[in-house]
Write a structure and sequence with these properties.
The protein has helices spanning 57-66, 84-87, 90-96, 109-116, 187-205, 209-220, 239-252, 276-285, 300-308, 326-337, 357-367, 386-413, and strands at residues 2-7, 10-17, 21-22, 26-27, 32-40, 44-47, 74-78, 101-105, 122-125, 130-134, 137-143, 153-157, 162-166, 226-229, 258-265, 290-294, 310-316, 319-320, 323-324, 344-351, 373-381. By secondary structure, it is an alpha/beta fold. The strands form 5 sheets. A 7-stranded mixed beta sheet has the order 1-2-5-6-7-8-9, with helices on one face. The longest helix is centred in the C-terminal third of the chain and has 28 residues, at 386-413.
Length: 414
């Protein structure tokens, strides 16, 4: 953990985590930063936790010393979000400083008791409520439910115009101790975090894109000079850049996204696989980039990212026991649960004694209300013949042209 000064009276404590599965599920090959903040007026508040504190008092004391804050100076702990990567330090902290008051949303209060047995000194707040720290520093609270848990809120420091939104406006990616801010990074490094943000959003936030849009509307109504999220870099030079990024990503969930195609395929004995390269080549010949994933070899985390940012999808899946190849069925089911809607899709695949893959795909699309539009599929018995390949290439070109037209038409509207 290293402390840096965000702005006058606001400090960032951060630790990088590697070699874990985020939420026990998502790989983070480039790590992730866990950020928390101390805000000083006449009194002090910790926002979003003492991230990754090891529970050793001396470790915490050393961090507080860097900010010239004593343990007994901390009167308030603001919990914007109860997920344990932001709140898991509370029990250990309370043994050192039992007198602090927790500020959280009404929905967070029962989770405090359920997770940590904390029932005393809890002050619930709602949109419009404030906490005066003195010296002209007032914290204002804003409910942003379902970004991405029901109890989430954001905290706004009215003096420095700093927004603390916890998981909102966050990203994957470890952060350098020497350059944790957008105004201390080269453009290529900012773009790295924007790329990490796309997979973070696809994995963590996509299913809640509608509430995210509502939260962004609330942020737009504030005079925000700095955005200090729970993960990723702090945006001081251009906080509206990350707001624009999140607006774009939230719109991708409904479509259209970019004029690109995610090609997801699986094959048992190589027969469906024979169709993959001709289809990819046909799409790219139309000037449309592709993102190709084989399942289950390619992880779901990366497939979700590709589908979120692509307006078109190709599913290369054989029939397996009258249904889709199971790894592909699992992927499509998760895409539906993440509410990635309104994609243009082409499916191709082999079958043996009977088809059935398309029937299950149609069922998932209807059950999860994905509203995907399907180009007529290309199915073939056994391995594809030359006529099957030529038909698939024709359908792939049709898909590519439809994607370009859709994105262009939407851009004209906006």
């Amino acid at each position: 953990m290293k402390t840096t000064q965000v702005t006058d009276g606001v400090y960032r404590l951060s630790a990088n985590v590697h070699d874990i599965l985020f939420e026990g599920f998502w790989p983070i090959p480039n790590g992730v930063a866990l950020n928390s903040y101390v805000v000083k007026g006449e009194k002090c508040a910790i926002i979003d936790g003492v991230c990754n504190w090891d529970g050793v008092p001396e470790t915490l004391f050393a961090q507080l010393d860097q900010m010239q804050v004593r343990l007994e100076d901390i009167d308030y702990v603001v919990i914007n979000h109860m997920e344990p990567d932001h709140s898991g330090w509370l029990e250990a902290f309370r043994t050192l400083r039992p007198q602090f008051t927790v500020y959280c949303s009404e929905r967070a209060k029962p989770l405090l008791e359920a997770f940590y047995g904390i029932v005393d000194n809890v002050q619930t707040v709602k949109s419009g409520d404030t906490l005066d720290l003195g010296n002209g520093r007032v914290l204002a609270f804003e409910d942003i439910p379902n970004v991405h848990w029901p109890e989430t809120m954001a905290t706004y420091d009215t003096k420095s115009k700093t927004l603390f939104p916890c998981d909102a406006f966050g990203s994957f990616g470890a952060v350098s101790d020497d350059a944790p801010y957008d105004d201390t990074l080269q453009e290529e490094h900012i773009e790295f975090f924007e790329r990490e943000m796309e997979r973070y959003y696809a994995n963590i936030v996509t299913a809640y894109s509608a509430p995210t849009k509502k939260a962004i509307e609330k942020v737009d109504a504030l005079d925000v000079r700095i955005i200090a999220p729970g993960h990723g870099i702090v945006w001081r030079r251009d906080p509206h850049r990350v707001i624009r990024d999140y607006k774009r990503l939230s719109s991708y969930a409904e479509g259209p996204a970019r004029p690109e195609v995610a090609v997801i395929w699986g094959s048992m004995y190589g027969m469906t696989e024979q169709m993959v390269r001709p289809v990819v080549d046909a799409i790219e010949a139309e000037g449309v980039p592709t993102h190709v994933h084989r399942v289950p070899e390619s992880g779901l985390s990366f497939v979700l990212e590709s589908v979120l940012k692509s307006s078109g999808v190709v599913l290369g899946t054989p029939t397996y026991e009258y249904k889709m190849f199971p790894p592909m069925a699992a992927v499509v089911d998760e895409l539906g649960k993440k509410r990635i809607q309104n994609r243009i899709c082409l499916r191709f695949g082999s079958y043996g004694w009977s088809g059935g893959a398309q029937r299950e795909l149609d069922e998932i699309n209807g059950r999860l209300k994905m509203n995907w539009r399907f180009i007529e599929p290309v199915e073939f018995k056994g391995r594809p013949r030359e006529t099957d390949i030529e038909l698939a290439k024709e359908r792939a070109r049709e898909l590519a042209r439809a994607v370009k037209q859709w994105v262009l038409a939407e851009s004209r509207v906006h």
